[in-house]
Structure formats: C-alpha cells, structure tokens
Amino acid sequence: MVRVGVDTGGTFTDFVVLEGTSFRLHKEPSTPDDPARAIVRGLERLGVLSALRELLHGSTVATNAILERKGTRTALVTTAGFRDVLEIGRQNRPRLYDLRQTKPPPLVPRALRFEVRERLDERGGVLVPLVDDDLHSVVAELRVAGVESVAVCLLFSFVNPEHEKRVAEFLRARGFLVSASHEISPEYREYERTSTTVLNAFVAPVMGRYLERLAASLPAGCALDIMQSNGGLVSAAVAGREAVRTILSGPAAGAIGARAVAARSGFSRVISFDMGGTSTDVCLIDGTPSERSEGEIAGHPVRVPMLDIHTVGAGGGSIAWFDTGGVLRVGPQSAGAVPGPAAYGRGGSEPTVTDAAVVLGWLLPDAFLGGEMRLEVDRARDAIGRVARVLGARLEEAAWGILEVAQAKMVGAIRVITVERGKDPREYGLVGFGGAGPMVACLLASALHIPYVLIPPHPGTLSALGLLTADRLRDYTRSLMLEVSEPAATSAVSQAFAALEAEALRDAAADRTTPDQLLFHRALDMRYARQSYELTIPYQSSLAETVRAFHTAHQDRYGYAMPGEPVMVVSARLRASAPSPAELPPPEPITELWAPKAIDERVVFFGTDDRVAPHRVPHYRREELGPGALLVGPALVTQYDSTIVIPPGWRGFVDGGTSIVLRQRGGGVDLLTGKHHDSEAGR
C-alpha cells in the first residue's frame, strides 16, 4: 500500500512517500496557478501515481483565495436588522493609536447582504416566525446578482437552528451552494460567527472544485484526505464543504511533524519553527501543539478550532527593500516560486533572504537540492549589491543585515506564542525545519536564549511527513451558557457531550472510520462571570474537577485566579479522533560518539557584534552522518531538502533517530553520553 503526504508551499511542493516502512522524499517547484499540476507531476516523477492508495494533502488553496480575495461571488442572508453586523464588527482595534488604520472591506458587499423576517430569543424561543415570502424575494435578487454561494447566519441559530435549516434547505433546493452557521460555527458571538460562515461560503466552492480536479487525476479507489487547521485529517468531501477549517492546513502539518520527531528524540516541550519560501510559522508544543478556538485571516475573524500558529512574512524568498524613511525591511513580499530569488536564475532580480545566504556562503551553489538545481552566485551578488550600495556597506555586511532583519521578525513571532501566553522560551527547545529553517535556527535560538535546537532527518519535507503521522480528527461544539452552580449544570453538560458523540458516530460512518477506531476527547469553554473570553479546559472526572482545572489554567495564563467568583460554561467541545496507522521507527541506541570526515572545506561568513568575518568551515553530507556523529561549529551540513548552518560556539551530535541535536554552552544534552538531562528544558 502506497501512502503519500504532499504539502504545497509557496516555492516548492514537498512529497514523502511511505511504502511499507520505508520513506522516499521529493521536492517539486510549485505551480501557484493550479497546485494540482505540481502534485500530479511529482507523483509521476516518483513513479507512484498508478499504485497510490491514499494521498494526504496540506493545501493553501483556501488560504490564498482569502488573502487574494479570489473566492466566489457570495451573498449573506441574515435576520432582519442585522445585515450590517459583518461591517460593524468590534470596536477594538489591533493598533489602538494608529489613526490611519483601515479595516479590510467585507467579503460580502452591502448590496449582497439580505434580510429575512424572523427572530428567536436567547434561549431559542420563537419571537417572530420565519416569513416564507421573504425567501422567494431573496432568491429572485440572488439570481439577478449572479450569486453562486450563500452564507446563512440567523440570530441565535446556535441555540435553535430550525429557522436557519429552513432557509438553507430552501436555497439549496434552488441550486445555490449554502454555508449555514449552525453547521460551520455553532457558537455565540454574532460577528465572529457571521464572519466565519461568510469566509466558508467565499472559499468552499473554490476549494471544492480544486479537490474535484485533484481527485480526478488520481487512480480509482485512491482516498484523498486534507489537513485541517486543528492538526487532523479529514476527507476531501468534508474539506470541500467546510473549507474554512483548512486555512492553516500546511502550517498545522508542520507542527504535527515537529511533535512526532521531537517525541522520537525524547523531547516533549519544543517550539516548531517552520521557515519556508514565503513565510515562517511557529507553534508551541507542550506534549501536544497549543490550540485556540478563534483566529484571524486577512483581518477577518474565524471561529473554528485551530492550532495556535503564528505566521510572519519572512521566508527564503522574502524580498529585502527600503521604506520611505530609508530603513531596511524584509518581506512580506516574496519572490515565490516564479521567478524566485535571483540565485535561481529564473528571471528574478530582487534581493531575497536566499540570495543573502548565498552571498554569505551558507547555501552552496553545487549542493542545492542535492545538485539538481545549481544556484547562480553572480546573480545573488548583484541583487545584494544594490542593498549594499544604499547602506554604504560591504556585500557580506549587507547580506548579514538582511538576515538580522528577518531574524527580528521571527523572534517577535516566537515571543507571541511564548511570552504573550505566559510561557518562557528558555524552557523549550527549537525544532528547525522547512527549506530554510535549519539555516537560521541556531541564530534564532541564541537570540531567545533557547538552550537547544533539534533538526529533523528531513527538515525540508517535515510538513509532508507530518501528514503521514497525523490522526483523523473532527471537532464538534454545542453552546451552553450556564453557571456551574446551577442545579441542572451537570446534567446539561452530560447531555451536550452525549449529543455530540452521537453526531460524531454518524459522521464516522461516512468518513471511512469505524466506531471502534474513534477516541473521544471532551472539553469545556469556561470563564468567570462578566469576562469576555474563555479558556478551553479538558473535561476531568467531573464538572467540579473541571472547575478546579479552570482556576489552575487561569492562574497559569493570566497570573491570577478568582476561586470565589461564579464560573460560566460557555460551550461543550468534543474531538473525535482516529489514530494514524503510520509511526516513525524507534531510535537506535548510541554506543559511542565519533568524528565524521568532512567532504571539503568552504568559506562562510558570520557576524559578531562589530564585524562580519569569513570562516573556513568543514562541510558534511547529512546522509553520511549516522547516530553518534559529533559536530562542532562552525560547520555546514547539506542534504537534499535543506542546509544546516552550525555557527561558531555551537556543537551537537546525531541522535538515535538521526535528528541532529545542537546546543550552545550548557543546553539540555550531554554530548559525552548522547543522553538528555531530564531536568533540562524540553523534557
């Protein structure tokens, strides 16, 4: 049986093929106009297309459709008097004192937002019955406007969806694609629920058509599963209907892969650091990746379960430029796959992070992609030279400056998921992956005083590997809005979980999952009375125990708890999971450390506080470094899918799982024994 994980990135599409217990890797230039072309071409070059039985895919289709506002023509149907909720939004602003900031325009213009007469109260009781004549009027206007997809979001439908179901059924019967809020995001908060439903209506037709094209290119009987933002896989049929759940598809796969390789190396507390061609994604992993119930994309709130991943526009293809004040910036603009960095020789001329790395000697022109693609040093030097002339600096100093600016953005991203969440980055390790992650991971760890860096065996394709190790997941939610002190609270929570489990069992039957494969994970969204936002707390042995766990979690997150205050249960959550059949092979025991032989020496530049200086460093091939191989920086390690830069003052070894563990003075690894200290960070 052949299973393939495919992650579509901005520059390359990554493949990991699992045949029995053996893995094969491949990278294919992405085709942004139609990602399916790169996928099919890569499968053909790997020679596995005809034998393929399961394709697991990390997709950027929904994300790009939102960022580029290239979704389908969408309308909104809502309760009379509430069509402007989507535009009014919330009064809080991301930058409080910026008088010039502008909100992104709604994805649905006012002319395509329609009202129907109906009204429920906060408990779901009918105040005004649904007026059917309004539906006929709405359909007529939708046809005139050329609308393809409709978002339906009625007031309090998360409590009683009957009116919303009638509207959705009426529209579906007349040929419209419909996203109903009680199906997409059945939670309170009117603006966020409306925004999420509109986002889904905007991208679901695009995602659905893409997945249909991709499925048609695969052999008969091949299953197609898609990574969701929550770190779990779901069938293409579900992903096509609920596309808003896939906006962090690729980054989530990377976090799952980082968790798997870190666990194999004996670490449970790490930060995943995925630096690709166009962006960098970071996620805190404390046994499992951190999660949240709400996020944002392009200024639009989206309320679905997702991993707590923070993204910044700094990747290998990010372009260096000067703002109006003459300050050097890096990203978010990217050279992408076409034309790519200047060093690719495909017509690109803008200076990028990749070009800076070539100038510094970090990327070797004859070793990129295993020698399949030769980098053009002169083009990279010309591009960086333009930056150097503006700065009045030497070529290598300009290149180092570009990396420092990019690094500052990445440091800020990690602070968001650690310091701003009440976590100390010094208590975690850093898993560097993506095509460019291993190149800068040690410098980033030094800046944040992170004690060690873990480089997976195949860092450039770890997201694709994460797809193969991911579980199948479905998330379910039911609003409750009750105080734990209410007499019926315990029974209401139990009834909510029972209803969600019944729904999960029904869905499993249609999703290639048998009931005996399912594991249920219960949680409650809880807050103190009069607070605005909740914490999601895993359900304990009883509601009383869960309340105690909430107080502890509140103390950890915010630095205080209020045990005497009333506690509200806002929502019940259920996660139904089916474990992945794929497991990474166990690590080999290390009997001794040994010094590998370098292929050759190369001249590489590193910066200090006052100068950028050349160093003659050993160059190793990754495939020649077995368990126990000792590495002392400065050094370069090249492999097919990435380049590892070990700066001066760093050293490490290859562990039993063939990951490279690096530290700088007193990290959590004993290089004499190859063992990890349980008392150190990351355990």
UniProtKB/TrEMBL annotation:
Pfam families: Hydant_A_C (PF19278), Hydant_A_N (PF05378), Hydantoinase_A (PF01968). Residues 193-473 form the Hydantoinase A/oxoprolinase domain. Keywords: Plasmid. One of its GO terms (cellular component) is cytosol. The keyword Hydrolase does not apply. GO terms for molecular function: 5-oxoprolinase (ATP-hydrolyzing) activity. This is Hydantoin utilization protein A (ORF2). The lineage of its organism: Bacteria, Pseudomonadati, Thermomicrobiota, Thermomicrobia, Thermomicrobiales.
